[in-house]
Amino acid sequence: QMHSIAQEVASQQNLAVERITSFNGLQADKVEPLRVLNRPMYNYFVVVEAKDRASVEWLAMQNWVTEIRKDKLNKMFTVQGRALVGSNTAETNGYTGNGVGIAIVDSNFDLLHSELGGSTSLPNGVVYGGYNYSDNSSNIHSQNFNDCYHGTGTLSIARRYAPQADMYALTVFPNAYDSTIVNAINWCITNKNGIN
Protein backbone atom coordinates (compact mmCIF):
# COMPACT_ATOMS: atom_id res chain seq x y z
CA GLN A 1 0.00 0.00 0.00
CA MET A 2 2.87 2.40 0.77
CA HIS A 3 4.21 1.82 -2.74
CA SER A 4 0.91 2.86 -4.36
CA ILE A 5 0.74 5.96 -2.13
CA ALA A 6 4.30 6.87 -3.12
CA GLN A 7 3.39 6.48 -6.81
CA GLU A 8 0.31 8.70 -6.46
CA VAL A 9 2.30 11.37 -4.63
CA ALA A 10 5.09 11.23 -7.23
CA SER A 11 2.51 11.60 -10.01
CA GLN A 12 1.10 14.77 -8.41
CA GLN A 13 4.58 16.12 -7.76
CA ASN A 14 5.53 15.49 -11.41
CA LEU A 15 2.49 17.52 -12.54
CA ALA A 16 3.55 20.41 -10.32
CA VAL A 17 7.12 20.26 -11.64
CA GLU A 18 5.85 20.26 -15.26
CA ARG A 19 3.75 23.36 -14.55
CA ILE A 20 6.68 25.10 -12.88
CA THR A 21 8.95 24.21 -15.80
CA SER A 22 6.37 25.61 -18.21
CA PHE A 23 6.13 28.83 -16.18
CA ASN A 24 9.93 29.16 -16.23
CA GLY A 25 9.96 28.88 -20.03
CA LEU A 26 7.17 31.44 -20.53
CA GLN A 27 8.48 33.99 -18.02
CA ALA A 28 12.24 33.67 -18.59
CA ASP A 29 12.68 37.31 -19.60
CA LYS A 30 10.47 38.73 -16.80
CA VAL A 31 11.26 36.92 -13.54
CA GLU A 32 13.87 34.69 -11.94
CA PRO A 33 13.07 31.03 -12.64
CA LEU A 34 11.57 28.87 -9.93
CA ARG A 35 13.88 26.04 -8.89
CA VAL A 36 12.56 22.71 -7.57
CA LEU A 37 14.78 21.70 -4.64
CA ASN A 38 13.05 18.67 -3.13
CA ARG A 39 10.15 16.26 -3.65
CA PRO A 40 9.63 14.40 -0.34
CA MET A 41 8.19 10.90 -0.68
CA TYR A 42 4.66 10.36 0.75
CA ASN A 43 4.02 14.13 0.92
CA TYR A 44 1.86 16.11 -1.46
CA PHE A 45 4.24 19.03 -1.82
CA VAL A 46 7.38 20.13 -3.59
CA VAL A 47 10.02 22.49 -2.27
CA VAL A 48 10.60 25.37 -4.66
CA GLU A 49 13.08 28.23 -4.47
CA ALA A 50 11.62 31.55 -5.61
CA LYS A 51 13.99 34.51 -5.82
CA ASP A 52 11.46 37.23 -6.53
CA ARG A 53 7.99 38.31 -5.48
CA ALA A 54 6.49 37.91 -8.98
CA SER A 55 7.27 34.18 -8.98
CA VAL A 56 5.65 33.70 -5.58
CA GLU A 57 2.60 35.69 -6.69
CA TRP A 58 2.30 33.52 -9.82
CA LEU A 59 2.40 30.38 -7.66
CA ALA A 60 -0.23 31.79 -5.29
CA MET A 61 -2.64 32.40 -8.20
CA GLN A 62 -2.51 28.81 -9.49
CA ASN A 63 -5.61 26.74 -8.73
CA TRP A 64 -3.44 23.62 -8.25
CA VAL A 65 -1.51 25.30 -5.41
CA THR A 66 -3.31 24.90 -2.09
CA GLU A 67 -0.72 26.43 0.19
CA ILE A 68 2.62 28.24 0.12
CA ARG A 69 4.78 27.87 3.18
CA LYS A 70 8.35 28.90 3.95
CA ASP A 71 10.66 25.88 4.35
CA LYS A 72 11.84 26.76 7.86
CA LEU A 73 15.38 25.96 9.02
CA ASN A 74 15.16 24.16 12.39
CA LYS A 75 17.62 24.46 15.29
CA MET A 76 18.77 21.97 17.90
CA PHE A 77 17.68 22.22 21.53
CA THR A 78 19.03 20.04 24.32
CA VAL A 79 16.60 20.69 27.17
CA GLN A 80 14.76 17.35 27.29
CA GLY A 81 15.63 14.96 30.08
CA ARG A 82 15.27 11.36 31.15
CA ALA A 83 12.18 12.03 33.28
CA LEU A 84 10.41 13.69 30.34
CA VAL A 85 10.77 10.66 28.09
CA GLY A 86 9.94 8.10 30.78
CA SER A 87 13.09 6.04 30.35
CA ASN A 88 13.29 5.25 34.08
CA THR A 89 9.94 3.46 33.84
CA ALA A 90 11.03 1.45 30.81
CA GLU A 91 14.28 0.41 32.45
CA THR A 92 12.54 -0.53 35.71
CA ASN A 93 10.12 -2.75 33.78
CA GLY A 94 12.94 -4.60 32.02
CA TYR A 95 12.64 -3.16 28.52
CA THR A 96 15.99 -3.44 26.72
CA GLY A 97 15.08 -2.65 23.12
CA ASN A 98 15.61 -6.23 21.99
CA GLY A 99 14.10 -6.67 18.52
CA VAL A 100 13.52 -2.92 18.09
CA GLY A 101 15.14 -0.47 15.68
CA ILE A 102 15.63 3.13 16.80
CA ALA A 103 16.37 5.87 14.28
CA ILE A 104 17.97 9.02 15.67
CA VAL A 105 17.25 12.05 13.46
CA ASP A 106 19.85 14.64 14.47
CA SER A 107 23.28 16.10 13.66
CA ASN A 108 26.31 14.07 12.55
CA PHE A 109 27.53 11.22 14.75
CA ASP A 110 31.00 10.36 16.06
CA LEU A 111 30.98 6.70 15.08
CA LEU A 112 34.45 6.25 16.59
CA HIS A 113 32.98 6.99 20.04
CA SER A 114 32.97 3.77 22.09
CA GLU A 115 29.24 4.04 22.81
CA LEU A 116 28.51 4.29 19.07
CA GLY A 117 30.44 1.19 18.08
CA GLY A 118 33.96 2.57 17.66
CA SER A 119 34.04 2.10 13.87
CA THR A 120 32.90 4.03 10.80
CA SER A 121 32.21 0.76 8.93
CA LEU A 122 28.50 0.01 9.28
CA PRO A 123 27.04 -2.05 10.75
CA ASN A 124 29.49 -1.70 13.62
CA GLY A 125 27.67 -3.60 16.37
CA VAL A 126 25.78 -0.54 17.64
CA VAL A 127 24.88 1.57 14.59
CA TYR A 128 23.38 -0.61 11.86
CA GLY A 129 22.98 2.01 9.16
CA GLY A 130 22.37 5.65 8.40
CA TYR A 131 22.12 8.44 5.87
CA ASN A 132 22.94 12.14 5.74
CA TYR A 133 19.84 14.01 4.51
CA SER A 134 21.51 17.35 5.19
CA ASP A 135 23.88 16.88 2.25
CA ASN A 136 22.36 13.79 0.57
CA SER A 137 25.28 11.45 1.21
CA SER A 138 26.18 8.42 3.29
CA ASN A 139 28.59 10.52 5.38
CA ILE A 140 27.08 10.56 8.88
CA HIS A 141 30.41 10.48 10.76
CA SER A 142 32.22 13.51 12.16
CA GLN A 143 34.63 14.11 15.01
CA ASN A 144 34.23 17.89 14.83
CA PHE A 145 32.55 18.69 18.15
CA ASN A 146 30.20 21.34 16.72
CA ASP A 147 29.03 18.96 13.98
CA CYS A 148 28.45 15.85 16.07
CA TYR A 149 27.99 16.55 19.79
CA HIS A 150 24.19 16.50 19.73
CA GLY A 151 23.70 13.45 17.51
CA THR A 152 26.42 11.51 19.34
CA GLY A 153 24.92 12.37 22.72
CA THR A 154 21.36 11.57 21.68
CA LEU A 155 22.23 8.21 20.14
CA SER A 156 24.41 7.38 23.15
CA ILE A 157 21.53 8.13 25.54
CA ALA A 158 19.10 6.03 23.50
CA ARG A 159 21.66 3.22 23.50
CA ARG A 160 21.99 3.35 27.30
CA TYR A 161 18.23 3.02 27.74
CA ALA A 162 17.78 0.41 25.02
CA PRO A 163 21.13 -1.42 24.90
CA GLN A 164 19.84 -4.27 22.72
CA ALA A 165 18.13 -2.10 20.07
CA ASP A 166 19.43 -1.71 16.51
CA MET A 167 20.43 1.96 16.14
CA TYR A 168 20.18 3.97 12.92
CA ALA A 169 21.79 7.40 12.48
CA LEU A 170 20.03 9.92 10.22
CA THR A 171 21.71 13.31 9.83
CA VAL A 172 19.56 16.38 9.10
CA PHE A 173 21.64 19.22 10.58
CA PRO A 174 22.97 21.75 9.66
CA ASN A 175 20.52 21.98 6.70
CA ALA A 176 17.53 20.84 8.76
CA TYR A 177 14.78 22.42 6.70
CA ASP A 178 11.32 20.98 7.28
CA SER A 179 11.64 19.13 3.97
CA THR A 180 14.99 17.63 5.01
CA ILE A 181 13.42 16.31 8.21
CA VAL A 182 10.46 14.97 6.22
CA ASN A 183 12.88 12.94 4.09
CA ALA A 184 14.44 11.42 7.22
CA ILE A 185 10.99 10.61 8.64
CA ASN A 186 10.05 9.01 5.31
CA TRP A 187 13.14 6.79 5.68
CA CYS A 188 11.76 5.69 9.06
CA ILE A 189 8.35 4.92 7.55
CA THR A 190 9.85 3.03 4.62
CA ASN A 191 12.13 1.02 6.91
CA LYS A 192 9.76 0.51 9.86
CA ASN A 193 9.98 -3.28 9.51
CA GLY A 194 13.73 -3.40 8.84
CA ILE A 195 15.94 -1.81 6.20
CA ASN A 196 14.48 -2.11 2.70
Structure in a nutshell:
It contains six helices and five strands.
The secondary structure category is alpha/beta
Strand proportion, as a percent range, falls in 5-15%
Instruction: Provide the helix percentage.
Output: 25-40%
Number of helical elements: 6
* Number of DSSP-assigned strands: 5
What number is the mean pLDDT?
88
Please summarize the sheet with the most strands: 3 strands, parallel
Q: What's the quaternary structure here?
A: single chain
What order do the helices and strands follow? Answer: HEEHHHEEHEH
Which residue ranges are poorly predicted, with pLDDT under 50 across at least 5 consecutive positions? none
Rough shape?
elongated
Major sheet strand order: 3-5-4
N/C terminus separation: 15 Å
Rg from alpha-carbon coordinates? 20 Å
Structure in words:
The chain has about 200 residues and is an alpha/beta fold. It starts with a helix and ends in a 6-residue tail after the last helix. The chain has helices at about 1-25, 55-60, 80-85, 85-90, 145-160, 180-190; strands at about 35-40, 45-50, 100-105, 125-130, 165-170. Strands 3-5-4 form a 3-stranded parallel β-sheet, with helices on both faces. The longest helix is centred in the first third of the chain and has 25 residues, at about 1-25. It is built from 6 helices and 5 strands; from the N terminus they run αββαααββαβα. Strand 4 (about 125-130), helix 5 (about 145-160) and strand 5 (about 165-170) form a beta-alpha-beta unit. The mean pLDDT is about 90.
